[in-house]
Input
Amino acid sequence: MQPKKKAILIALCISIILMLAKFGAYFITHSNAILTDAAESIVNVLASSFAFYSIYLATLPKDENHPYGHGKVEFFSAFVEGVLIALAGLIIAFKSGYDLIFPKEIFQLFEGAIIIGATGLVNMGVGFYLIRTGKEHRSLTLEADGKHLLTDAVTSAGLVIGILLIKATGVFMLDSIISILLGFYIIYSGYKLTRKSVGGLMDESNVDLVKNIVDMLQGNRQDAWIDVHNLRAQQYGADLHIDCHITLPYYFDLNRVHKEISDIDDMINGHGAHTTELFIHADPCLPECCNYCKISNCPVRQEAFKGEIEWTVENTTKNKKHFNR
Output
């Protein structure tokens, strides 16, 4: 089984077990705060189920209807997970607000705290495992699910502290207050995850990703690569697509142009963290490029070399050649 599928299947099975444990804790305590955590566990199970399906789709090869592959389903999976988290937070906040006005008796808080604490530790371990596997295999779905489980672990930790405070003080109103606060924290976590997924679906510029590409090009640049501009990057699951323009000496024949572009392709796929598909448009140099062109034996040079222009996110993403004036 593929590592990504294995990781999410483990998370799904553990989420089901922890959900049952948390509902068991609620039935013995009747605590709203514990019900908050148990309700979020339903979201964990639903999210992990959808994540498993999205990872299955993301691993399918490109086809006629999906020439860029199926990787973007991972952004959709993260969006669904974020929405489910936010909805769970809203339901929790409203339910706890009602019980704050009409309180009810709660029991066996210490036993409930032990169960919730244990589930929080398990979620923390699984969360770190999913994040590590997601980064290793470049899966946004695994990272999102891992961060969700870490959020759940933080919620459980806060819940245990709250339960112990209720036990120590005897102020049962704290149960609903803690539950409301945790509900708002869950809503905020859902918003952050949804915001990130929408950015991916809308091909929002990933500045860190573009910077890594530019740094790689700058660190391995060749004299014939006069400048790189109109650079754009899109991520589709674990795959990366880059298109850009590169300025080459206008007297290069087609074979030489092909070699230079192939060298860039080999360099990025050899040094980068993603499997990358490049679409590179070759531009001929102009006389205005001479003052920053480093080719020492250029037969058509019209100006002396003045200095190299360092490639940055700012000048490589603009749709125009660089000029050192």
User: Anything to note?
Assistant: The chain has two domains: 3-201, 207-316. Residues 140-169 form the longest helix (30 residues). The chain is about 65% helix and 10% strand.
